[in-house]
Amino acid sequence: MTDANFTNVRCPIPSVDQSIVQLAHGGAGRIAQKLLDQVFRPILHNPALDELHDSARVTSESGKLAFSTDAFVVHPWRFPGGDIGSLAVHGTVNDLAMAGARPLALSMAFIIEEGFKIADLMTVIESMRNAADRARVAVVAADTKVVERGKGDGIFLVSSGIGEMVAERPILPTSVREGDRVIVSGCLARHGVAVMCARDGLDLDPVVESDSTLVHEPALALLKEGIEVHCFRDITRGGLATVLNEIASAGSVGIRIEEARTPVREDVASVCELLGLNPLYVACEGRFVAFVAEKHASRAIEILRDYDCSKGATDIGVVEGRAGQVVMKSLIGVDRVLDLLSGEQLPRIC
Amino acid sequence: MTDANFTNVRCPIPSVDQSIVQLAHGGAGRIAQKLLDQVFRPILHNPALDELHDSARVTSESGKLAFSTDAFVVHPWRFPGGDIGSLAVHGTVNDLAMAGARPLALSMAFIIEEGFKIADLMTVIESMRNAADRARVAVVAADTKVVERGKGDGIFLVSSGIGEMVAERPILPTSVREGDRVIVSGCLARHGVAVMCARDGLDLDPVVESDSTLVHEPALALLKEGIEVHCFRDITRGGLATVLNEIASAGSVGIRIEEARTPVREDVASVCELLGLNPLYVACEGRFVAFVAEKHASRAIEILRDYDCSKGATDIGVVEGRAGQVVMKSLIGVDRVLDLLSGEQLPRIC
Fold it and tell me: How many CB atoms lie within 10 A of CB A174?
């Protein structure tokens, strides 16, 4: 895999106008983190939101639920391996599974720019329906708004989902323990690269297809089989390195991974090199990381490999070291800190 | 109140380019209906979505839930009496109540245009928080995406909500029965007029303030008091006339109302006349209509009048006549059909 040395450098937050929203505020780097920490969380804070997980846990009088929402502004809306419709379903079903929940129902809000083709809208809705059918869940509520030309960008979607908790223990960053094994479910960075190539009109042969898919089945299978899973997280915005940093920080643990074990396909690594991207910071949409008690790690990998979408599951490291820090042993055997990026390598990939 | 005669005329759908999304597709008129009926519903259909109510009913193993989603693209984002943050909370809490459910949790997705002021973002989030506090519900999940300048319009919000069913019977258009009384909770059209004046810079004295508010307390109080409510609907896009048409159509009932009993404040009626709007087609964001068994109608009005937000509750008509048709006895005693408009009088008011 490619080795982009800039990740060694602790980038200072660039001196941008702090009084307005920047594109990087929508990413997964330190600038976005700052917006969350200084604007959203102080005002909205509550126990469920403060857990900072992919789905919130909601207790009703009658049971335990997971609740999740995600906005999708991917550009272009169609890319090799998927489109915004399937992406929105995958994203929300996966987020529910990452909290240890079985999907129960989805809702979908459409914000469409005037002039978007009805035929394209039908493609998006059909793709959404097919993905929902595969997840055995229905879109039970929907809303549509249309904005004037030049006030939107084709189509934006927001999907929300509710799920029934399957996990007996809380699946959360704070549940992660020293010694847990860090397992990724497959090769990294394909989604971001696929969208980027589609956006830039890069005509590669063979085309890199997005990894966008449903991952709830293998994730929930681990729970069903009694594997002691402490945390799940799907590897979306900001890629593996960002996701590990988020968990290290929210769970106050150290994480140590090995570059040599980190799965990146050769063709994807080549495109990343061409585009100047570090694949560890490039989003997937059908991959997740599981923090599993050491005694169950090899059985967990066996179970995951039974599913197509996680047949590349592999153990890449362990929970140890300084709280809040992610360290990677590089290919040449040197330890380096895998930090949050300042901004976002790839805007609007989801 | 003003009497815009164009509602007597059955407007043909204008010959627009049918292959692209029009601004009117986001409204509540016949063009929007056509998009729903020909594009969304055939592809997405499922029993919950097909009920065509403000919230979907979801049955989990452990209980009965309501689930709702709404996109907000109101322009300008701030208007007399509210802003997009409070509006998004009101809209979703009210939608849950309209299905007979007590709000349990909200989620919120932000799609922000690069360059939006952080101070304005904080205003929106604070207003959202305050509205959620008043509803005694928390925003437990959130997501933020940022799009480039010129690819959005300041700020769009999507709020979703889950609620626990309080209603023992289904509160649905198909539950409406011949002889039910039609009760509106207060004066009409203030929200749409307030947004329109803000957008056009109309400097009225006194200013018309939006009616945007929470209405779940009086609605749920009716259920708690054992009032036989057959259907609720909040009077948003398209105003009272559109909402009644939706229920007449989905419930296969006729509805007959009296113009003289339909509450529109004089100042609001004057602005409508000035702007060429029919207030019966102008949105509220803090008003609802209840279809109540005749024997309980006067008690229902008493209960509603105990709450500030519904102290103007009044009986405006009855369920009778040709299925699918809404008829209004005008001020001069003539019956006329209150039809769906073709397009939308006021785009982007929610």
Answer: 15
Residue showing tokens 């519903």? B41
Distance between CA B284 and CA A24 in Å, rounded?
Answer: 36
Token readout for B34 is: 């056509």
Q: How far apart are CA B215 and CA B219, in angstroms?
A: 6
On whether the CB atoms of residues B87 and B73 are closer than 8 A, the answer is: no
Q: Considering only alpha carbons, which residue of chain B is nearest residue A138?
A: B46
Domains assigned to chain A: 20-165 (3.30.1330.10), 173-337 (3.90.650.10)
Return d(Cα B32, Cα B44) in angstroms, integer: 16
Residues of B with Cβ-Cβ distance to A104 under 8 angstroms: 58, 60
Say which DSSP state B124 is in.
H
Give the global pTM.
0.93
Residue B86: its chain A contacts at CB < 8 A?
none
User: Alpha-carbon distance B181 to B229, whole Å?
Assistant: 10
Q: Give B322's DSSP letter.
A: S
- Residue A112: list chain B partners with CB under 8 A: 21, 25-26
Question: Are residues A158 and B158, on separate chains, in Cβ contact within 8 Å?
Answer: yes
Whether this model's ipTM surpasses 0.90 comes out as yes
Nearest-CA distance A39 → chain B (Å): 6
Name all contacts of B29-35 with Cβ < 8 Å and 24+ positions apart: B29/B238, B29/B242, B29/B340, B29/B341, B29/B342, B29/B343, B29/B344, B30/B340, B30/B341, B30/B342, B30/B343, B31/B342, B31/B343, B32/A144, B32/B344, B33/B340, B35/A118, B35/A144
pLDDT the model gives residue A58: 82
Q: Is B23 helix (H, G, I), strand (E, B) or coil?
A: helix
Is the backbone of residue B239 left (phi > 0), alpha (psi -120 to 50) or beta?
left
Q: What are the tens digits of pLDDT across the range B40-61? A: 989 999 888 888 777 888 877 6
Token duo for residue A121 = 């809208």
